[in-house]
From TrEMBL:
This is Soluble lytic murein transglycosylase. Belongs to the transglycosylase Slt family. PANTHER family: MEMBRANE-BOUND LYTIC MUREIN TRANSGLYCOSYLASE C, SOLUBLE LYTIC MUREIN TRANSGLYCOSYLASE-RELATED. Its EC number is 4.2.2.-. GO terms for molecular function: peptidoglycan lytic transglycosylase activity. The gene is slt_2. Keywords: Lyase, Membrane, Transmembrane, Transmembrane helix. It comes from Koleobacter methoxysyntrophicus. GO terms for biological process: peptidoglycan metabolic process. InterPro entries: Lysozyme-like_dom_sf (IPR023346), Transglyc_AS (IPR000189), Transglycosylase_SLT_dom_1 (IPR008258).
């Protein structure tokens, strides 16, 4: 028996190919769309200084997204500056530790300097809090003095889940960074 390829079969084949193409475009554009929501701008600086300071670059990217949405001239209500929202006093102190001479707080608007100082500070906090990411993020947001005070007054048998941490904003910040961090690792890692 000879199989005859007719017009009806051709239409089904074209429809199947179109469906496959649409699904492929959806998958590819879906990833593209998600990368627009979770960008990786300044990746050269992020990877360079994260590696130099032994910080996961996707953690750095997560902090930048949450803190400034990648806007290098961002200024918070409290005066934190730049991509990683570094307070001028913290920036000055870290600049001294890094022997960056002639530091001025306006330098925090420079993406490279901001990321260099921010990743060094994250690394410093990692050492101060034995790599406990919850405590590191709480200290980055709420201040290491506040985290130390909280650790001293709470029951030492509890995990560092921040449920009883006195600053609601800091608790929410830690949750948000962890959520964004998971997305960055899945999307780019």
């Amino acid at each position: 028996m000879i199989y005859v390829f007719n017009l009806r079969h051709f239409k089904w084949l074209i429809m199947l190919l179109l469906l496959i193409l649409i699904l492929l475009l959806f998958v590819l554009s879906g990833r593209w769309f998600i990368r627009q929501i979770y960008p990786l701008k300044y990746s050269d600086y992020i990877f360079k200084y994260s590696k130099e300071n032994q910080v996961d670059p996707y953690l750095t990217a997560s902090i930048i997204l949450v803190e400034s949405k990648y806007y290098p001239n961002a200024v918070s209500k409290k005066g934190a500056r730049g991509l990683m929202q570094i307070m001028p006093r913290t920036g000055e102190w870290v600049a001294q530790q890094l022997d960056l001479e002639g530091f001025h707080p306006d330098y925090l608007f420079d993406p490279e300097i901001n990321i260099k100082i921010g990743t060094w500070y994250l690394s410093y906090l990692m050492k101060q809090f034995n790599g406990d990411l919850t405590l590191v993020l709480a200290a980055y947001n709420g201040g290491q003095g506040n985290v130390r005070a909280w650790l001293q007054q709470r029951n030492s048998n509890k995990e560092n889940d921040l449920e009883d941490f006195p600053f609601r904003e800091t608790r929410q910040y830690v949750i948000k960074i962890n959520r964004v961090y998971k997305v960055y690792k899945r999307l780019y890692g």
